[in-house]
Fold these 2 entries.
Entry 1:
Amino acid sequence: AQKVTQAQTEISVVEKEDVTLDCVYETRDTTYYLFWYKQPPSGELVFLIRRNSFDEQNEISGRYSWNFQKSTSSFNFTITASQVVDSAVYFCALIDTGTASKLTFGTGTRLQVTL
Amino acid sequence: NAGVTQTPKFQVLKTGQSMTLQCAQDMNHNSMYWYRQDPGMGLRLIYYSASEGTTDKGEVPNGYNVSRLNKREFSLRLESAAPSQTSVYFCASSLHRDSSYNSPLHFGNGTRLTVT
């Protein structure tokens, strides 16, 4: 069975600090996809990134970067120079080919960025 | 582009009442989903519809029914609401089920349901 663990329930940082959100996953499949979603205080879910299991290249998008390591089954998300607008709940999610219709979410990490 | 539209945004029910949550997407997606979000539990899949005319149970289907009315619309019905169904409900869609891992789910803005 697939599982996603986000051990950090809540993180508080001061603006301009860097912060890393951890995500550890479990799956028996060799083909799978990992996602990060952002849920700002307004409540909607915003897609941030998708990564497939065959592509271990790290990705950077502006202040956001993702570190995918199959050896440790982790897909961590780093925000550089955090801003107040980054305050949100962040969800890591996994889908594999065995359960293609069932995106499994972690429990989320609430990030609070203060001035 | 509206994307995925859910109605209502808020609802309060008394135990035993019934109601239907509506969801519509205008992206010509084939697959649609209903999730519930509870504190400390992330999002859990209730039901999904891989294509028009088909529906399947997700992780937490008990107490719910769904109808894929057409390609655009996927409704979630609570026949006899219980306090345990107090939650935020999200509808989502994706282009294809079999490639849903290859394309992200698009979510609606959610319905906050309280059952007293």
Note: Chain B has a mean pLDDT of 90.
Entry 2:
Amino acid sequence: EAQVTQNPRYLITVTGKKLTVTCSQNMNHEYMSWYRQDPGLGLRQIYYSMNVEVTDKGDVPEGYKVSRKEKRNFPLILESPSPNQTSLYFCASSSTGLSTDTQYFGPGTRLTVL
Amino acid sequence: AQKITQTQPGMFVQEKEAVTLDCTYDTSDQSYGLFWYKQPSSGEMIFLIYQGSYDEQNATEGRYSLNFQKARKSANLVISASQLGDSAMYFCAMREPFSGGYNKLIFGAGTRLAVHP
């Protein structure tokens, strides 16, 4: 089944404790992206990657890191999480970065930083 | 300025009736994609339907259709024969050509649809 997977689905952590949210897709997609969703602010892009070893900042990259060493994986790293990073995180992928390509989303990761 | 506007924060519909969710967009690009996603209370983001800016026919996917009026820059989602399981938040989104270092989906604020038996 074609899908985007994220792990963990739920995470409660404390300020400053490094964490990684994994994202993997099995559709051989070139483009991958991370979004966060917050009440009143909607969905905002954190980082995106057009292909392996190519990553770029989105609208809200501060406090996050990403890497794209393999085509299928695009982990999101929070080196020192803070409470304002409490959010619902989505990984998404599309075949290419073209405007006509559909982005498919993972199931989401609910992160709480205490 | 808002690039995607969904003017209906909430909508009610009776089961088995049709409902239209409004979406207007703003872009100066000629090539762009318009998308609708459904987000149920469980939180996942489910792709429903896509319309390309050059597509002359309105997109349809089962009970979903997109009423695309390019000159008016509107891309309304029509759900026919509503079901209880259609109760969710619905997002309209646009994807513009890669330029200026950004490449993303731009989302509207969403419309919460409640289907009543």
Note: The first strand of chain A starts at residue 4 and ends at 7.
